[in-house]
Amino acid sequence: MDPLLNSKIKDQQARPVADSSTVPPARPIQPLGAKTRSQQVQSSANRASSRDFAMSENSVSESIQSQPQTQPKKGNKILVTVLVAIICLAVGLAVGTFVIAPLINDTPEVYNTSDAVPTEETVEPVINDNLEDDLSKKVSYLTFTDQSQDSDSVSSYATLVSKFINNELSDEEKLYAVLYSLENKFTTSDVQLDNGTNYTSYISSDEVNKRYQDLFGVDAPSDIEDVSAGCPVYHYDQETNAYYTFDGCGGVSGYSDLIYKSDYKVEDNKAYVEIKVGSVFLDLENEQAGAVIYNNLYESEDKKAVKTLADFETAEDLANYIITEEESDLFTSYTVVFTQDSDGNFVFDSVE
Fold it and tell me: Per-residue pLDDT tens for 217-229?
């Protein structure tokens, strides 16, 4: 056996057992709810501690309340006031300008566009020398008059002029007017066609169609073989694609119509040529009895005499009379209207 362990056993056995007289007497039992002296002291200490804590809290609260609050700086208050004033002023001006003013003045604003510069999309044609020359020639084409003159008389084709003035030209008569206007472009050549007729001159139908389009805005009719609205007669040959004619027309009419181109103007897509119209009647067998100048077409029912043989030195002077600018007010006015097409060309529209 371990000596150390044996020694501890011996010591344990040698200890005396405690005598009942040595056990300390039990503490007397306290009544329920009674406190010991130490507990009373501890309770008093706790109450004192609670009072001290409450007094401390009240002291801190009073200290916080007694401290002065931080006031905003005076400069910041002024800046805010200025900004608010500026905003109010701007809002007031906007309301006055866009809300109140239109209600007070409800009269629609009228814009003066008389001096406005037209944009590229609204540029309108103006009368210049080229346009005036173009319109003048087209009126001559339609009235069988001299293309280089503002005033002329027409005798052999007076009936066609009357139809033109009254908007009664047929397609054949329009084609005839175009062929007649190209008289100086015919090529002189003796030609005998299959129909057995001898012709003295011709012109390509392409040339005819080009002028017809320029004057009327459409192709020339191609189904009219003999264009015989007057003299001479024009014959269309499909094989050679050309129009042929011959010399030999003549004769004298007892009257002629007078045409004077007096004014030109353009408005929007329309061009207007004012013409003065009259007529001359001369009875070749009795000049004294029948020599009169009328203020309208000879075929017009309301024509009136404005001059007689007494106003001229000779009957020949009367027969050769043309309207002048100085005497143009004596005659009847008509307006030849042209409409501008998509290519900018002015084509014949009507006579008013």
Answer: 999 998 899 998 8
Are residue 161 and residue 240 in the same domain, yes or no? Answer: yes
Range of 31-40, 61-70, 118-127 with top mean pLDDT: 118-127
Tell me the pairing of strands 198-204 and 187-192: antiparallel
pLDDT > 60? residue 262 = yes
Q: What is the pLDDT of residues 300-331, one digit of tens each?
A: 999 999 999 899 998 889 989 999 999 999 99
Phi, psi of 301 (to 5 degrees): -75, -20
Regarding whether 272 and 223 lie in a shared domain, the answer is no
Closest CA to 278 of 251, 252, 307: 307
Q: How many domains does the chain have?
A: 2
| Integer Cα distance of 88 and 278 in angstroms | 79
- Last-in-domain residue among 245, 268, 292: 245
Query: Quick one: which of 173, 143, 146 has its CA closest to 158?
Result: 143
What type of residue is 344?
G
Give residues with Cβ within 8 angstroms of 19, minimum separation 6. Answer: none
Question: E strand or H helix at 161, and its extent?
Answer: helix 158-165
pLDDT at 40: 47
Q: Nearest-5° angle of CA 6, CA 8, CA 14? A: 105
The CA distance from 55 to 65, in Å, is 15
Q: Show the domain range for 228.
A: 157-245
Tokens found for residue 17: 């057992």
| End-to-end C-alpha distance for the chain, whole angstroms | 159
Look up the pTM and report it: 0.62
Q: Which residue has the tokens 């030609």?
A: 191
Secondary structure, 3-state, 237-266: ECCCCEEEECCCCCCCCCEEEEEEEEEEEE
Q: Residue 212: exposed, middle, or buried by beta-carbon count in 10 A (0-12, 13-18, 19+)?
A: buried
Burial of 72 from C-beta contacts in 10 A (0-12 / 13-18 / 19+) = exposed
Q: What secondary structure does DSSP assign to 311-336, as a single string?
A: GSSSHHHHHT----TTTGGGSEEEEE
Q: State which amino acid sits at residue 62.
A: E
Which residue is listed with tokens 């150390």?
Answer: 4
Considering the domain architecture, whether residues 290 and 229 belong to the same structural domain is answered as no
